Amino acid sequence: VQNGLNSLAPALIFLIAGRVVSWRVGVASGLLAAFSHHLSHFSNFILPDTLCALPILSAVYCLTLASSNRRTYLLHCLAGALIGMSTWVRPQSMLLGVFAAGLLWLISRHRMRAFKRGALLAAMSALIIAPITLRNYLVYHEFVPVSLGLGVNLWEGIADASGDRFGAVAKDMEVAAQEAVLYNDPRYAGSNYTPNGVQRDRNRTAKSLSIIRQHPFWYAGVMLDRMGEMLKYSAHAPLVYRISEARTLERTAPIRKEWRMLDTTASSLAVGESIFWMRPLVRSIQRLRAAAARSVN
Fold first, then answer.
1. Would you tell me how many other CB atoms lie within 10 Å of the CB of residue 90?
2. Is the CB of residue 93 less than 8 Å from the CB of residue 49?
3. Measured between alpha carbons, how far is 115 from 99 in angstroms, rounded to an integer?
4. For residue range 265-274, what is the model confidence (pLDDT) as tens digits?
């Protein structure tokens, strides 16, 4: 189901590029997205990380329609609502409505008109997100716009990049165990977020930002390396199974130990096995696409 939903992304990219540039560019863009090994790799993780992109792409498409449509205010409202819906799936797009409004104002010739439309977009996005913030305040009596996680992501990211240089740890349960000792509260060892999850995550954020302020050049280098990794991430993409022969379905053990449980049932791989005959063709197209991208870079 997730792969089926994610397969709508190339269609939306085709529509957006077709309207903004030309339909020939739209066809090329859609095909490049359809055969992208990056998108294929991420789509197979059963996480909301890829699903949250669909409402954002839909919002962008609404904005492309708004430039030549009488119902431009309605389309800006719809775009804001879609951005807000994306935030319900993943919180990273929480400020995207405000950013999009500012960008529309900067690139528009009619600043006042763009300001009104952008304000409407940002307000609708905030309105859709507001129930989460209100719920958090009523339940926890704390201002948490969408969710916790900033602190733990920063702390574990610093550990990934530095090892034990700053005393950070790289896994959720290690963070919980570290805080149980740090705060002398054995209850903290069971979870990153209970009890006192809000305060604990804010403390992690403060510690992480303190390290970043003290080592700004190191942190900038880490972020540049991460950006570079995003452009070649599929180079590290693990296949679920090693294929002993390309022409058969014979498999050896899964590459990753944590995926061995998949070996007990074939149900999760049934769809993939039914279209296995397409693998050599698609792989060849993906290689051509990757080679073209490298030559452009």
1. 18
2. no
3. 12
4. 555 566 667 7
Distance CA 31, CA 9 (A): 11
pTM: predicted TM-score of the whole model, two decimal places:
0.74
- Residues 162-184: tens digit of each pLDDT: 888 898 998 889 999 999 999 99
Question: Which residues make Cβ contacts (< 8 Å) with residue 26, sequence separation at least 6?
Answer: 13, 14, 15, 16, 17, 18, 19
Residue type (1 letter), 254: P
Interhelix angle 96-107/53-66, rounded to 10 degrees, is: 30
- Alpha carbon distances (Å) from 176 to 13, 183, 184, 192: 41, 11, 12, 5
* Closest by Cα among 262, 225, 223, 220 to 241: 262
Q: Residue 194: exposed, middle, or buried by beta-carbon count in 10 A (0-12, 13-18, 19+)?
A: exposed
Interhelix angle 111-140/96-107, rounded to 10 degrees, is: 170
Structure tokens at 259: 């995926």
